[in-house]
């Protein structure tokens, strides 16, 4: 057992010390994966268990102004990250078919590496999205998709910065920061209040854009299975499978949030129509009676006390029948 532990530890040290990019080893949170893993696990525990428990008997916080400034910051930050990815690579220096990692001290390579680290830090900032839900007691918004997406991303990006801070896989960050510019712009407008919300009809298209993003990432990553490229295949699988997982999670969310909701609305409308039809059917006899009363002279109406009743027999069938005789024309 001790020997097995030693083998695992030696393999871990070899991976961290000899296989990683030495340029980032001394950067904040880059020496070991465990601080990042701890933060991710605590995040999941807080938003699903601890946070809702702490807020159970408290009033929800009014964070409208905080969220306006937060979303504005995210729009600006995402715009800067997108600009850095364009300038340092994806604006013309990088190949969309095959882009190895530049481990040199080339200024553009260092700029891309720096942008990758800040993209990693952005994933911690984005955890605030869920924390705001907890503090506002919007627990129904804390979906499986939301927790998995935000909880996995810091750890996933950590490996990218540690081993491949540049090159082919940064295409994910290039697309993702662009989508986040649009996404946080939507959240910013939504936080401005009810006067703006009627104009935010395009929310479902934002979810569709996120799914398109993951399709592009899958295609871009998995093309290296058919191209000879000096890029670690482990990260091709890592990025590609993340895109597959998130695509299906977002697709399920899209179906649940929009298509099923639309179907439920149609079903409810049909139910309401059936209820109205039944009400009309129950009211119809009374309506007919009212119409008859309005159109009939009161002197023509025959009341029960104006009848005389006699009983007779029909000889061929033997049945007893009651006969009502109009008594109005006779004197007592």
Automatic annotation (TrEMBL):
A Pfam family recorded for this sequence: ELO
PANTHER family in the record, alphabetically? ELONGATION OF VERY LONG CHAIN FATTY ACIDS PROTEIN 7, FATTY ACID ACYL TRANSFERASE-RELATED
- Report the source organism: Dinoponera quadriceps (South American ant)
What the record says about family reads: Belongs to the ELO family.
The protein's name in its UniProt record: Elongation of very long chain fatty acids protein
Keywords from the UniProt entry = Fatty acid biosynthesis, Fatty acid metabolism, Lipid biosynthesis, Lipid metabolism, Membrane, Transferase, Transmembrane, Transmembrane helix
Catalytic activity field = a very-long-chain acyl-CoA + malonyl-CoA + H(+) = a very-long-chain 3-oxoacyl-CoA + CO2 + CoA
Transmembrane regions listed in the UniProt entry: 27-46, 66-83, 142-161, 173-193, 205-227, 233-250
GO molecular-function annotation terms?
fatty acid elongase activity
Stated membrane topology is: Multi-pass membrane protein
- Which GO annotations describe the biological process of this protein? fatty acid elongation, monounsaturated fatty acid; fatty acid elongation, polyunsaturated fatty acid; fatty acid elongation, saturated fatty acid; sphingolipid biosynthetic process; very long-chain fatty acid biosynthetic process
As for subcellular location, the record says: Membrane
Q: Which EC number applies?
A: 2.3.1.199
Give GO cellular component annotations, separated by semicolons.
endoplasmic reticulum membrane
């Amino acid at each position: 057992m001790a020997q097995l532990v030693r083998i695992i530890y030696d393999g871990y040290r070899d991976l961290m010390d000899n296989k990683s990019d030495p340029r980032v080893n001394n950067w904040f949170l880059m020496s070991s994966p465990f601080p990042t893993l701890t933060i991710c696990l605590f995040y999941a525990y807080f938003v699903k268990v601890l946070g809702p428990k702490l807020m159970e008997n408290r009033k929800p916080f009014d964070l409208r102004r905080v969220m306006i400034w937060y979303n504005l910051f995210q729009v600006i930050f995402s715009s800067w990250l997108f600009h850095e990815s364009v300038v340092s690579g994806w604006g013309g220096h990088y190949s969309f078919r095959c882009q190895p990692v530049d481990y040199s001290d080339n200024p553009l390579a260092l700029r891309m590496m720096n942008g990758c680290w800040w993209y990693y830090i952005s994933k911690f900032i984005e955890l605030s999205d869920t924390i705001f839900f907890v503090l506002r007691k919007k627990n129904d918004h804390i979906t499986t998709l939301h927790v998995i997406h935000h909880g996995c991303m810091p750890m996933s990006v950590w490996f990218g910065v540690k081993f491949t801070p540049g090159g082919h896989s940064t295409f994910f960050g290039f697309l993702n920061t662009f989508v986040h510019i649009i996404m946080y712009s939507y959240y910013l407008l939504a936080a401005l209040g009810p006067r703006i919300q009627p104009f935010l009809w395009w929310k479902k298209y934002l979810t569709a854009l996120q799914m398109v993003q993951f399709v592009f990432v899958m295609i871009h990553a998995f093309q290296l299975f058919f191209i000879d490229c000096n890029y670690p295949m482990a990260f091709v699988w890592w990025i590609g499978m993340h895109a597959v997982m998130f695509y299906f999670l977002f697709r399920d969310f899209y179906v649940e949030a929009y298509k099923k909701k639309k179907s439920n609305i149609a079903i409810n409308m049909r139910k309401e129509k059936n209820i109205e039809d039944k009400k009309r059917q129950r009211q119809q006899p009374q309506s007919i009676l009212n119409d008859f009363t309005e159109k009939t002279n009161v002197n023509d109406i025959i009341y029960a006390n104006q009848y005389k009743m006699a009983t007779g027999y029909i000889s061929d069938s033997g049945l007893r029948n009651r006969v009502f005789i109009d008594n109005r024309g006779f004197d007592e």
